[in-house]
Amino acid sequence: MDTDRFWYLLSKLKSVEASPEEQLELSQYLSEHPADIELLKMVDIFWNIPFRTKTGSDADGTDEAWSKFQKRILQEAVQESPAPVGVIGIRRITKFLMKASAVFLIIFTGYYLWKEFNLSKPAQKNTVSTKNGSRSKIDMPDGTQIWLNGGTRIEYDENYGKQNREITLNGEAYFDVVHNERSPFIIHTKKLNIKVLGTVFNVKAYPEDSMTEASLVKGRIEVTFPDRPQEKLILKPSEKIAVANNPFEYSKNSTGVKEKRKSTNPEIVFSALNYQVRDSTIVETAWVKNKLIFRSKKFDELSREMERWYGITIQVQDSAILNERFTGTFNNESLDKALDALMLSYPFQYKYEKNNTIIIYKK
Amino acid sequence: MIDANLHTICQKITKGDDQGAFGELFSLLYPKLLPFAVSILNSRESGEEVVEDVFVKLWQNRKMLDAIKNIKYYLLVAVKHTSLDYLNREKKTQHESLENIDLEFGDFELNPENALISRENIVAIQKEIESLPNRCKLIFRLVKENGLKYKEVGELLNISTKTVETQMTIALSRIGSALRKQLAAEGTTDLKKLKEG
């Protein structure tokens, strides 16, 4: 074996890179050249002596660095919860609600992985969400106001207000977007993307609902569809668009188990906003004013809205009621009063179970 | 430093939200990361700043810490990227890898107080390491001090595994040859002593 081969094997051995064959080769060499065993011993010893900087060991300054670090994370913990500046819980509706639901506003600072592990560095994600039964309003860094209905989640990254004004919506939200010519405000939902410069509108995108809706109060919004990239729609004030979430829709059967059936809904519906004749309230956005308005709404759908409104679970044992249509307004009614009112137009009975579950059954 | 031990510390941090365990990790790894940052930035002060930033991010992500397979390598990669970002920001450079950066090895020494090896031998080894080219020194340091695999060093420095292997052979042959000379010299001194005695 030439000397180069020896150094090659030695370096691999010390680096824990030598294959079993190479280790064998080296030990064979050493048995033939016992003088080099002494050399190997010295390399072993030297390998275990850590380097240090000339001014002292590398470990010097570590304690100092650690106390500096501790101060910094303490400071940052205080300054955390970055973007949404004002968080205002909207007045809750009833005593039942007070107990059942506090306004939960959860801000996650998303995971931040290094480029190497995720190829590109993802921007830090912020999530704001409400539980069923609670509504809240947030002020975004650019001044845009967003009201979140129950069971809603919005996500935006750390560049919001700096490089973009994009959010992802899951659930229902009412937007009052601050005008900015240079930076359009974009909302992503599963079925609709909405691009605006500055306006007031409502988007309802609950994955469990049959339709995703966008309702424009004032201004102008541009609607595109992730499923049909070449199409684009402009919505004018008082117009509304609804897109079917799923060609198959899920509905609850009599045992409360979800079952799949072909949807009868058309894929896209273009219509006008619904106004209450009495006080010209817009039905689609009444929830912002703590009103749950429903017009000729199937109980199938209404029960889902009530679940989100009151933070409860409704189990229907009388499947006939699912196709019954109801019209009404809940202002500040308690759940009891609301159910009693519904019973006036269709006879049913209900009982409370644990975990905020209401069972609806035949009279 | 045993990697299993590091992993246990990481688990403690994730499960118990444990600042004490994080401090342990900090004191074990800070001294290993700082020289690497300094070698890229050629400034102890900037190096300290970068390594602190890396630990702050790690603290913010402590909930996923136990999912990291090789924390030592993970942090070196983090130090690399943070250092490059720092250079690009401060010096308005546009480095994406370490390829075109003069890596300064910085000053270092081996503790001469060691019972197992003579002071002369330490000095000889040190002289030899100092005379190695910078990149070779850095590779040597990453393998010996940080316990990285050749493949990891290659990925970190954007060089091939083969290059790492070659550089390590060069480093070991130069150090080994110096040691061999020392041993031979010691032998003659012993002989002299015998004769004189």
Largest sheet of chain A: 15 strands, mixed
Number of domains of chain B: 2
Name given to the CATH architecture of the largest domain in chain B: Orthogonal Bundle
Strand content of chain B: under 5%
CATH topology of the largest domain in chain A: Jelly Rolls
Calculate Rg of chain B over CA atoms: 20 Å
Structural class of chain B: mainly alpha
Indicate the percent of residues in helices of chain B. over 70%
Number of DSSP-assigned strands of chain A? 23
Q: Per the principal axes of the C-alpha atoms, what is the gross shape of chain B? A: globular
Unreliable spans of chain B are none
Got a strand count of chain B?
1
Overview of this protein structure:
The complex is a heterodimer of chains A (363) and B (197). Chain A is 25% helix and 33% strand. By secondary structure, chain A is of the alpha+beta class. In chain A, a hairpin with a 5-residue loop joins β16 (248-252) and β17 (258-262). In chain A, α1 (3-14) crosses α2 (20-32). The longest helix of chain A is centred in the N-terminal third of the chain and has 18 residues, at 62-79. Chain B has 2 domains: 3-90, Rna Polymerase Sigma Factor, Chain: A; 119-196, Arc Repressor Mutant, subunit A (Orthogonal Bundle). Chain B has helices at 3-16, 19-41, 44-60, 71-90, 119-130, 134-144, 150-157, 161-196, and one strand spanning 109-110. At the A-B interface, α1, α3, β1, α4 and α6 of A face α2, α3, α4, β1 and α5 of B.
